[in-house]
């Protein structure tokens, strides 16, 4: 339990450090826009609830892919291909930027 709080503390410090970095701000904004666009698309086109659409967007872009939800329409499948190609790089860049700030010492 102590290690959890130490990790949480390091993560919080890293996020506070990163928030002043322009590159982090851009990646954060792109991440939010990407997740919102996926959520809106899957909710509208595939008929997922908002929480299911957000869940599917996050699971897809983090490449976890549980398989419990999937696009059923051809348009949804084509969108998902493009969404993955564009979105995975954004998410990985965002996660990498957070990791860089965790490695930095005060």
Automatic annotation (TrEMBL):
Highest taxon of source: Bacteria
A GO BP entry: monoatomic ion transmembrane transport
Keywords: Ion channel, Ion transport, Membrane, Transmembrane, Transmembrane helix, Transport
S-adenosyl-L-methionine listed as a keyword: no
Transmembrane segments: 24-43, 75-95
Domain Potassium channel: 30-103
Protein's cellular compartments: Membrane
Coiled coil residues, start to end: none
One Pfam match: Ion_trans_2
Bilayer topology: Multi-pass membrane protein
Record-given protein name: Potassium channel family protein
Native source species: Bacillus spongiae
Organism lineage string: Bacteria, Bacillati, Bacillota, Bacilli, Bacillales
């Amino acid at each position: 339990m102590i290690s959890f709080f130490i990790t949480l503390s390091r993560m919080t410090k890293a996020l506070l450090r990163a928030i002043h970095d322009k590159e982090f701000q851009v990646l954060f904004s792109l991440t939010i826009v990407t997740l919102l666009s996926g959520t809106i698309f899957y909710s509208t086109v595939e008929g997922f609830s908002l929480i299911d659409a957000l869940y599917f967007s996050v699971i897809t872009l983090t490449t976890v892919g549980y398989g419990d939800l999937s696009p059923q329409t051809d348009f949804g499948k084509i969108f998902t291909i493009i969404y993955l190609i564009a979105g995975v790089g954004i998410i990985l860049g965002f996660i990498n930027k957070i990791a860089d700030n965790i490695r930095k010492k005060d």
